[in-house]
Amino acid sequence: MIKPGTTIASIKRSIEDCYSKPVSVRLNLGRNKFVSFDATLSGIYPSIFTVEPADKNFLGKTTYSYAEILCGKVFITLKGAS
């Protein structure tokens, strides 16, 4: 569900603030299935951003669009933040 008042531009700014910092990534796979992993934001581009999982054996997708955050498919939380 999209939060009112949230825009792609505000999401980009918050992602840029987390650049090269450790984050926790939570993916909504649908039907109440979630995958969580620790990672570092490794690249920021105009329409996507990339994360590098801390676990080298993680086989999940590591490139996400800002729209996936807006729609609630991806949740990024700065590690150490409440």
**Order of strands across the main sheet:** 4-3-2-1-5
Biggest sheet layout: 5 strands, antiparallel
What coarse outline follows from CA principal-axis ratios? Answer: globular
Overall pLDDT level: 89
Radius of gyration: 12 Å
Q: Oligomer, anyone?
A: single chain
Q: Can you describe this structure in just a few lines?
A:
With 82 residues, the chain is of the alpha+beta class. Helices cover 20% and strands 43% of the residues.
Kindly describe this structure:
The protein has 82 residues and is an alpha+beta fold. The chain has one domain (8-78): SH3 type barrels, CATH 2.30.30.100. It is 20% helix and 43% strand. It contains two helices and five strands. The chain has a five-stranded antiparallel beta sheet. Strand 1 and strand 2 form a beta hairpin. The radius of gyration is 12 Å and the shape is globular. The model has no long low-confidence stretch (mean pLDDT 89).
